[in-house]
């Protein structure tokens, strides 16, 4: 039997929504077994913790292993309460400021995404889930002067995750493209904050809540 924590990452101001994340703190499972567990759990991502004190983590979607992903890093850093995470992509700095947990990451660590701009937030709201294919991050300005964006994410992997509620890696790429701090409303009501830094890193932050612990 395997225990795992269930978090919601990038919750809205009312504490609702956010992207669900599974975190398994003790697992000697190999890559194939971890992939099978991630597929069985069915979260958009599942984190396996290899060293809780050093923050060494391993990230899986239901169908593939990822060297880096945004909401898993934000959630895992909050849960483990560590100043950095060790991922295959590199060291991810982490800090807690008030109600927001922040990570520091490089845009080149993020998996490829198609950033597709629309003219209005209403157009983004009206989008239907596209057929499997490319990974699409649909976005539009809600208030450009204030850096407020409406976004939705469609992974297109055909693994049962038709729409991702909140995606830090895509927000990272959009921030790098636009070169400015953003306040992103994604999915049904999630919130992602970002800010570029002079050293090439980008801060990605959001609220994290613990749903509870379950057993596989």
Could you characterize what this model shows?
Strands 1, 2, 3, 4, 5, 6, 7, 8, 9, 10, 11, 12, 13 and 14 form a 14-stranded mixed sheet that branches. With 216 residues, the protein is α+β, with helices and mostly antiparallel strands. The chain has helices spanning 31-41, 70-80, 121-125, 168-178; strands spanning 3-11, 19-24, 45-51, 56-60, 65-66, 84-87, 90-97, 100-105, 114-117, 136-143, 148-154, 182-186, 190-196, 202-215. Helices cover 18% and strands 43% of the residues. It has two domains: 3-102 and 206-215, Diaminopimelate Epimerase, Chain A, domain 1 (Roll); 109-203, Diaminopimelate Epimerase, Chain A, domain 1 (Roll). A hairpin with a 4-residue loop joins β4 and β5 (65-66). The radius of gyration is 16 Å and the shape is globular. The longest helix has 11 residues, at 31-41. It starts with a strand and ends with a strand.
State the CATH topology of the largest domain.
Diaminopimelate Epimerase, Chain A, domain 1
Mean pLDDT: 96
User: Using only CA atoms, what is the Rg?
Assistant: 16 Å
Shape: globular
Our estimate of the beta-strand percent is 35-45%
Low-confidence stretches: none
- Summarize the amount of helix as a percent range: 10-25%
Termini gap: 6 Å
Count of the separate structural domains: 2
Sketch the major β-sheet. Answer: 14 strands, mixed
Number of strands: 14
Shape-level CATH architecture of the largest domain? Roll
CATH class of the largest domain: Alpha Beta
Q: What is the CATH homology-level superfamily of the largest domain?
A: Diaminopimelate Epimerase, Chain A, domain 1
| Secondary-structure element pattern, one letter each | EEHEEEHEEEEHEEHEEE
Number of helices: 4
Pfam families: PhzC-PhzF
InterPro entries: Phenazine_PhzF-like (IPR003719)
Protein name: PhzF family phenazine biosynthesis protein
Organism: Streptomyces lonegramiae
């Amino acid at each position: 039997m395997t225990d795992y924590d269930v978090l919601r990452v990038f919750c809205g101001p009312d504490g609702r929504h956010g992207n669900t994340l599974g975190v398994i703190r003790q697992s000697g499972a190999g890559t194939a077994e971890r992939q099978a567990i991630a597929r069985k759990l069915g979260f958009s991502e599942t984190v396996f913790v290899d060293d809780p004190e050093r923050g060494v983590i391993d990230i899986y979607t239901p169908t593939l292993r990822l060297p880096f992903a945004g909401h898993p890093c934000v959630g895992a850093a909050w849960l483990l309460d560590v100043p950095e995470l060790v991922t295959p992509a590199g060291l991810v700095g982490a800090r807690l400021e008030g109600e927001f947990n922040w990570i520091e990451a490089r845009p080149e660590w993020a998996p490829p995404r198609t950033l597709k701009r629309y003219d209005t937030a209403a157009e983004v709201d009206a989008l239907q889930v596209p057929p499997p294919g490319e990974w699409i991050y649909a976005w539009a300005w809600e208030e450009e002067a204030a850096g407020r964006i409406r976004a939705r994410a469609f992974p297109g992997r055909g693994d049962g995750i038709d729409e991702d509620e909140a995606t830090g890696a895509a927000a990272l790429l959009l921030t790098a493209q636009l070169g400015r701090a953003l306040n992103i409303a994604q999915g049904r009501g999630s919130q992602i904050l970002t800010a570029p830094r002079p050293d090439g890193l980008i801060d990605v932050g959001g609220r994290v809540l613990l749903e509870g612990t379950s057993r596989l």
